[in-house]
Amino acid sequence: xxxxxxxxxxxxxxxxxxxxxxxxxxxxxxxxxxxxxxxxxxxxxxxxxxxxxxxxxxxxxxxxxxxxxxxxxxxxxxxxxxxxxxxxxxxxxxxxxxxxxxxxxxxxxxxxxxxxxxxxxxxxxxxxxxxxxxxxxxxxxxxxxxxxxxxxxxxxxxxxxxxxxxxxxxxxxxxxxxxxxxxxxxxxxxxxxxxxxxxxxxxxxxxxxxxxxxxxxxxxxxxxxxxxxxxxxxxxxxxxxxxxxxxxxxxxxxxxxxxxxxxxxxxxxxxxxxxxxxxxxxxxxxxxxxxxxxxxxxxxxxxxxxxxxxxxxxxxxxxxxxxxxxxxxxxxxxxxxxxxxxxxxxxxxxxxxxxxxxxxxxxxxxxxxxxxxxxxxxxxxxxxxxxxxxxxxxxxxxxxxxxxxxxxxxxxxxxxxxxxxxxxxxxxxxxxxxxxxxxxxxxxxxxxxxxxxxxxxxxxxxxxxxxxxxxxxxxxxxxxxxxxxxxxxxxxxxx
Length: 495
Hints:
Layout: H1 7-10, H2 13-31, H3 37-44, H4 53-78, H5 87-98, H6 102-126, H7 128-135, H8 140-157, H9 162-177, E1 179-180, E2 187-188, H10 201-220, H11 235-244, H12 246-261, H13 267-281, H14 293-305, H15 307-310, H16 312-317, H17 323-333, H18 348-375, H19 377-380, H20 384-403, H21 406-423, H22 429-453, H23 459-464, H24 467-494
Antiparallel strand pairs: 1-2
């Protein structure tokens, strides 16, 4: 209970002010397409140089928490995830918006984000030593199969066809191989110098989601304000409904905690896996993709429950549990704080103040998020043509600001136009993005596994031995089988 003694540090005027500003800023940054939590935290790290370690970490933590939740705003209202962690939120969030349930969807988002976030921080506080030991069990072979499992989940995420879902995932995996091999350093599929650095994930994310949506808006007026109404919805009613969805909250929170512990996994995997699992376990499977609240609740509780546990391997081992946690590592180092036992001994006051601020930030995120939900009507009242222009400008700005490279803008626009035509053939963007994200994880860990296996009994034996490997392989096979069975069931229902 050591952390209790440091709570008062969070509520000093300076720290509390930074916490409020960080939360509000994070929500706004998260709502902007392309401005991911990782990029938001990275952009703010230079501003922490002249701050005290307490204040610098509080600001970065608040922004991290808020941007993960804030990305759901554009996901629900514009069908563009503000960050990779909000990809799954699009699937039922946007359909709810088209049904004049925009505020209801936003309420579910922030309430479930709050619940999942609090659970994640509690896990961080009480179970750090235990969970750190669990995270150590995951080696290169396990991380490789985790990535493959993520790809197989694609099969059940694609609403039209398992084959199309897997093919889309394969496209994403291929896109991930463009550029220099991270191990051998050789060029692959570099047809033009602009591809030498590979496909930037932010450029791909914005292009695959934003540009097709803009073109659809101009073609079909799908986002016309006549179809969107910011309805009156009681926060209390939304809260009561939310806490009754025990299954969705439980699946989302547990998934987020587990994924957060796995180094490098990130919120996008947590959101997609939890969405996949609640869909499989739901009695209303056919409602998913059409505006099912459980889809939002599971996805948003998962990607926020991931925040706390992702810091467990970071603070104890120096191994980030998410891309944003990796950036936070830089924030620790610039203040002379190195991960390990010293954080909880020499730097105990700063460390526990930072962790406690994350818990308080969840309440801040809930309050300001619900308030912003009411103001979001100004977004949906914008004429469709203006909205299309605004989204395009944000897409270009968000893409260019990552590396200050206009080539990323070209890649973004090219992928977006291609995705627009692919969507007409029944393909979806989510599997491509997921394949692009998981590709480097799978490749890097496979290369590491091969190096280790060469000193033992060979790569096949190394990848298929041990209960963890066999468990994850079984999940991969079950996911594919379930996808085909689900598709067959849908066809039988239609016939």
